[in-house]
Write a structure and sequence with these properties.
- With 351 residues, this protein is of the alpha+beta class.
- Strands 1-9-6-2-3-4 form a 6-stranded mixed β-sheet. Strands 5-11-10-7-8 form a 5-stranded mixed β-sheet. It has a two-stranded antiparallel sheet with strand order 12-13.
- The radius of gyration is 28 Å and the shape is elongated.
- It starts with a helix and ends with a helix.
- 29% of the residues are buried.
- Bound molecules: dinuclear copper ion.
- The site of dinuclear copper ion (CUA) has 9 residues, from loops.
Length: 351
């Protein structure tokens, strides 16, 4: 009797754990500062996420009904026909060879599976066959350990960790088509409210598209384990009204000004090896290994969402990136307090 109680208790605990995991899925936790809210696959605000949700709910309803009927009959049989004192211990009557029953439990499941296949393949085909209209925005997202490089080849914009796209409002459809690539290992692009997950695989190009309708900021994260800081490889999709998106585009297309009110910091930046990894458009910094810094101050977070972009965090990041993101590939440049202040002052001119 004891043993059975233990088994039931263990099963219940496992079930509770599974529920907790489900509840936490999609919960994004930043390291420093409150950068993101909780995001949910059950509140889609874009195609294809809405279509995927509708299909999943239909499949869940069909499977849930089957579960309820089967489990209900099972519980009924267990209770109604349980062993009672005084029952005979002989075998109950055996039913077999009934063509009607066997036909019913073969054909009915076949029909149900067929419906599920049709519904699912229609959704998959709808999503995969979508062709970019002439108004579409084209962007390339490249996964790095542990940040996102974002390029708009047609607009001449390079940025990082924040994908800006226009909303498709009543005035017309303006989806964003993404080419997904990886510079090192496998990553996965996942913004739960906008679309499903798509992997970024080295030496391969995957495609996906999103068409959000509501302006706002949509947090997401890398959904494929890619090393120590996989959990802090966050992405933000900022959805603008069409006018705001055009304004953002114009701002991002500007090069950094050659005039600067932080000349010491600028000198420091170019004298150290920062330029080997980072690009600042309009200067001699052309490094490709780390994020483009031309408009660093236009971004809300640092280190792929690991910290909010504040002066204190930026100072901490320049002084010792490992303090914010252990294992990240940006080294500690061993700058003095004064040098850190100068570099930060220069970085803050990159608007
Ligand atoms: Cu990139 Cu996980």
């Amino acid at each position: 009797m004891r043993k059975r109680h233990h088994k039931i208790l263990r099963a219940l605990l496992l079930f509770a754990f599974a529920l907790a995991c489900l509840g936490l899925a999609g919960h994004v936790e930043p390291a420093l500062g409150n950068t993101d809210g909780v995001t949910s696959i059950f509140r889609p605000l874009s195609q294809p996420a809405q279509e995927i949700e509708e299909t999943s709910l239909l499949v869940l309803a069909i499977c849930g009904t089957i579960f309820a009927v089967v489990a209900g009959l099972l519980v009924y049989a267990i209770v109604r026909f349980r062993h009672r004192a005084g029952d005979e211990l002989s075998e109950p009557p055996q039913v077999y060879g009934s063509n009607q029953i066997e036909l019913a439990w073969t054909i009915l499941p076949l029909l149900i599976v067929f419906v599920l296949i049709l519904v699912t393949s229609r959704t998959i085909a709808d999503i995969q066959n979508r062709k970019p209209p002439p108004t579409a925005v084209q962007a390339t997202v490249i996964g790095h350990q542990w940040w996102w490089e974002i390029r708009y080849p047609e607009l001449g914009i390079v940025t990082a960790n924040e994908l800006h796209v226009p909303a498709s409002d009543g005035r017309g459809s303006r989806p964003t088509f993404l080419k997904l690539q990886s510079a090192d290992v496998a990553h996965s692009f996942w913004v739960p409210q906008l679309a499903g997950k798509t992997d970024l695989i080295p030496n391969r190009e995957n495609l996906m598209w999103i068409e959000p309708t509501t302006p706002g900021t949509y947090p997401g994260n890398c959904a494929e384990y890619c090393g120590t800081q996989h959990a802090r490889m966050l992405i933000r999709v900022v959805v603008h009204s069409p006018e705001d998106f055009d304004r953002w585009t114009k701002e991002q297309q500007q090069s950094a000004s050659l005039e600067t009110n932080a000349p010491e910091g600028r000198k420091m930046f170019f004298a150290n090896s920062c330029v080997n990894c980072h690009t600042i458009a309009g200067t001699s910094a052309h490094g490709k290994f780390g994020p483009d810094l031309t408009h660093l101050m236009s971004r809300e977070t640092l280190a792929a969402g690991a910290a909010t972009n504040t002066t204190d965090n930026l100072r901490l990041w320049v002084r010792d990136p490992q303090k914010i993101k252990v294992g990240c590939l940006m080294p500690n440049m061993q700058l003095t307090d004064n040098e850190v202040d100068q570099v930060v002052a220069y970085l803050q001119t990159l608007k």
